[in-house]
Amino acid sequence: MIKQEELRINIDRLVGSLRQLGDIGALAGGGVCRLALTDEDKAGRDLLSTWMRELDLDIKTDELGNMVGIRKGRQSVPPVLIGSHLDTVGTGGLYDGSLGVLAGLEIMRILDEFQIATERPLAIANFTNEEGVRFTPDMMGSLAFSGIVAASEMLSAKTVDGSGKTVGEELTRIGYAGAIPCGTFEVDSFLELHIEQGPLLEEEGVDIGAVSMVQGIYWTEYQFTGSSNHAGTTPLHLRRDAGLVAAATATFVRQLALKMGGDQVGTVGLIELFPNLINVMAERARIIVDLRNTDAQALAQAQQLLEAEIELLAAAEKIAFEKTELVRFPPVQFDREIVAVIEKVSEDLGYSHKKMPSGAGHDAQMLAPICPTAMIFVPSVGGISHNIEEFTKRSDIEKGANVLLQAALRLLNRPLD
Length: 417
Ligand SMILES: [Zn+2]
Hints:
Layout lengths: L10 H12 L16 H16 L3 E4 L5 E5 L8 E5 L13 H16 L8 E5 L13 H6 L5 H5 L11 H8 L14 E7 L4 H5 L3 E7 L1 E10 L16 H19 L4 E10 L9 E10 L2 H21 L3 E10 L2 E2 L2 H14 L3 E6 L4 H5 L5 E6 L15 H20 L4
Parallel strand pairs: 3-4, 3-5, 5-13, 6-12
Antiparallel strand pairs: 1-2, 2-4, 6-11, 6-13, 7-9, 7-10, 8-9
Helix pairs in contact: 1-3, 3-12, 8-9, 10-12
Bound molecules: zinc ion (ZN).
The site of zinc ion has 5 residues, from loops.
C-alpha cells in the first residue's frame, strides 16, 4: 500500500480531461467559449456528470445548478470540498475554472485507483456562472451556495444581451435546475486550485502561490446626461458634453490609483457614448469604474474620492448623472491554517512557493464566510487570461494539482473533534 504522502496525480489523465472538456465550445483560433447556461455549458456539465458517475459519486445539484459530487469518507461528516467553475468568458482559455474542477476529479480518480479511504468525505463542485458574462453578478452560483444571497434573487436575473431569458428559465432548459435549496449544504473546508491570471509567479520563477486573501472589488456604473450638439458651431463654454466627463473620469481613476499607492488599482474598461458620432458631442455616456484594493478602508476611501471628483466634473460641464452600485465585494481573508498547510505541502514536495493575494474574484471568496477556505495558484504564461492565448505549462499544472492533492489529504484526515 502506497503511503498517502507519496501519492501523486496522473498528469497525462488530467491534461487529457482538460483537453476533452476544452473541445466543448472550442473556438476556431484556439480557446473556448462556454458561457453560463448555454448549450455548450450544458455539454460541459454533461461530461462532468458522466465522469462523476464513473466514480460512483453521490451527485447533488442545487436550485441554482451548482453541481456537487461526493465520495464517501469513513465518517458521516461534512466533506472537504474542492471546486471552481466550468463556465468561461467569450474568449476563454482551457484552464480558468476548469483546472480547479478537473484537478478535483483527478484526485478522486487517484484515490480510487489506490483504494484510499479518507476520514472525511471528499467532494468536488462546479459552481454556476462564475464569470458573470451572460448574467450578473459574477460568482453567482457560489454566492447562493453559501447562502450569502437568496437563490430566488439570482434565478430571476436576466441575460445581459437583452433577450429577456432568466437564469431560472435557462437552468430548466438545459436540465440543471436541481431540487436542493441553496445555503443548506454543509462543508468542512474548501480548496480551489486556479491559474494566477497575472504575471507575478512567472516573473519571479515561483511554482506555487499560497493565496492568503482576495482583494475587494467595487464596480460602479455612472450614466452622464448632457446634450448633443454640433461639433463645429457650438462654442466650448456652451457645451454639455457627457463624453468629456466620462473621459475625465477614466483619467482620474488612473491618477487616483497612483496617488493612493499600496495595492490600489482602478480601471475604466467600458465607455459607451450616445449617439457616438464623429461630429456630435455625446448627449449621454455610460461608464463602469472598477476599483480594487486589499485594504477595505482604503478601497472605501478611493470610492469616496471618486464620487467627489465626479460631482466636480459633472458640475463644471453642467451634466446630470446617475450612479448604480453593481458590485461591492469587500476584501476576503482566507484561513491562516489552510494557507500554512499549502505552504508546508509545497515545501515537502520541493516546490518554490509564496504567499500572495488574489487580484481576481473567485468562488473561494464566497465559501470563506461558511468554512475554512484557501486557494492555490499556478503560473499563467505571460500573465494572460480571459484570452484564447491563456496557457499554463503542463509541469506547473502537475505541481499545482499535487499540492491540491496533498493539502486535501491533510484536511481529509485531520482528527475529528
Ligand atoms: Zn476562474
